[in-house]
Design a protein that fits this description.
57% helix; 146 residues; mainly alpha
Amino acid sequence: AVFGRGTDFICNDAKLLAAGGVHVVQTFIAADLSEEKQIQGRTARQGKDGTYCMVLLGKDLQEFDIDPVEAGRKRPEELYDVLKCAIQQRGRKLSKVRQEQFQEAEKRDELTHAYFDALLNADAVLARQRFAELYHSLPVGRPKAR
């Protein structure tokens, strides 16, 4: 089962609780550190004991430019620090990309408004000009003009 933010589960198995509680095995690299904390927090709920570990594939580590062979030589705490840095770096890169995408969307929004303003003002010449500007602002992959 998958458990996430806002999901509590209760263990009523006395044997399991006596053996240390629920153990969560994370088999993927979280999108960000807050997600990571949520996953870890699924273990010990409401004062109960619990444990957590990660089991990752080498290809998952490689996506973060972490050499699986080198990773195998590190202590778990050391590897986790490297992984946390990689997650943060990916987050910063993604944030930068999203900011650039947002700025592009704002530009196209302004062009769209200018085009519709020209249409509403019945200015065909300006509308054609604004439409051309809008069209040429679209990402590559748009239909080619004939």
